[in-house]
Amino acid sequence: MHDEQDEGQVTTVRARQQVLETAILGLLHDAPMHGYELRKHLNLVLGSFRALSYGSLYPCLRGLVSRGWIEGTETMDGPAVSTRRARIVYALTPAGKEHLQAELATSGPASWEDEHFDVRFAFFGQTDAETRLRILEGRRSRLTERLDTVRQGLDRARGRVDEYTLELQRHGLDLVEREVRWLDELIAHERGSTTHPTTGGGRPADPGPTDAMRAVRQDRPVVDPGRTTQKERG
């Protein structure tokens, strides 16, 4: 029993490490950053529920450097010589860019699980349309399974738990249903984008943003109701 628990914990730690690595590489793809900048941007990408500490960031950065995926360059920061301090700026290497592209091209089950989906979605701008669609459809399939489980649990709970526990379960059901609707809208948008005739420049014409895409373009927060449900249930 303990061996199974230990194995599960190791798997979870590895999954989180991979998520952090992908997020770092994706951010450095846009521009080089020092550690403090990376931490701020990572908190936006990963969400406040995954509070990122320097204790987890810098070992990950050292690991990426050792694998040749990023490189660090010392720069002097400060207006005067007496107040300047060395600061390492990290940049993506060609090998790191190649690894990131390969990672963002994958669309297996891990990409639509709770631990990975939000980070993969955050970098959809660097992901090809077919892969985006496969991930969204996979995520919807996973949420549909979860929806059935939540409904069955709600049916079993009626008459057996107090009204507040029952209301919490209804709330969880509502959150999952809303994410499924959100995914339906995104999937419809992606299918429209991939099937719409091309413009004169050879690029697909934009069929127009959905409400979900308008929210993304306006930098409104993307909620993962499935994970919120788990958190609220303790």
From TrEMBL:
Coiled-coil residues: none
SUPFAM superfamilies to which the protein is assigned, alphabetical: Winged helix' DNA-binding domain
Keywords for this protein: DNA-binding
All residue ranges annotated as the Transcription regulator PadR N-terminal domain in the record: 24-101
A Pfam entry, by short name: PadR
Superkingdom classification of source: Bacteria
GO molecular function, one term: DNA binding
UniProt xrefs under InterPro entries: Metal_resp_DNA-bind_regulator (IPR052509), Tscrpt_reg_PadR_N (IPR005149), WH-like_DNA-bd_sf (IPR036388), WH_DNA-bd_sf (IPR036390)
Region (Disordered): 189-234
Signal sequence bounds: none
Name by which UniProt lists this protein: DNA-binding transcriptional regulator, PadR family
Biological source species: Cellulomonas marina
